[in-house]
Amino acid sequence: QVQLVESGGGLVQAGGSLRLSCAASGRTFSSYTMGWFRQAPGKEREFVAAISWSGGSINYADSLKGRFTISRDNAKNTVYLQMNSLKPEDTAVYYCAAVTTVPYSGSYYTTPGSYDAWGQGTQVTVSS
Predict the structure, then answer these.
(1) 68-73 sheet: strands from edge to edge
(2) What is the pLDDT of residues 37-77, one digit of tens each?
(3) What's the per-residue H, E or C state across the chain?
(4) Measured between alpha carbons, how far is 100 from 116 in angstroms, rounded to an integer?
(5) What is the pLDDT of residue 23?
(6) Rounded to an integer, what distance in angstroms lies between the CA atom of residue 43 and that of residue 28?
């Protein structure tokens, strides 16, 4: 089973930026669709972005297009989420996730149930 470890969260002022990283164990990372989700207190887990195994297909939540960028480095077994122009409403725990059961698939997985491996999450807090 793949292990996912997020890092890069923290406290930032509104308008600032953060880059989250998610490091994966194992030799088959390059075959996984990877996604980022977030969950604010009292709310459901929300899709942020997904990237296909090759990085050639990317999908974003409509509300986040233009501010967030997902990328991956298969040589480093790592997926990233660059977050710019952060707003207080971006405050949440951010999770990375992998689709390991359908290798070499696209970026169309937008629901938590589509992902079968999860990291522990990293807190992002945006102050106003």
Answers:
(1) 4-7, 18-24, 78-83, 68-73
(2) 999 999 999 999 999 999 999 999 999 989 999 999 999 99
(3) CCCEEEECCEEEECCCCEEEEEEECCCCHHHCEEEEEEECCCCCCEEEEEECCCCCCEEECHHHCCCEEEEEEHHHCEEEEEECCCCHHHCEEEEEEEECCCCCCCCCCCCHHHCCEECCCEEEEEEC
(4) 7
(5) 98
(6) 32
Beta-strand pair 18-24/78-83: antiparallel
Say which amino acid occupies 2. Answer: V
What integer is the mean pLDDT of 24-41?
95
By percentage, how much of the chain surpasses pLDDT 90? 95
Quote the pLDDT of residue 69.
Answer: 98
Query: Are the CB atoms for 70 and 80 separated by under 8 Å?
Result: yes
Q: What's residue 1's pLDDT?
A: 84
Residue that has been written with the tokens 């710019």 in this structure? 84
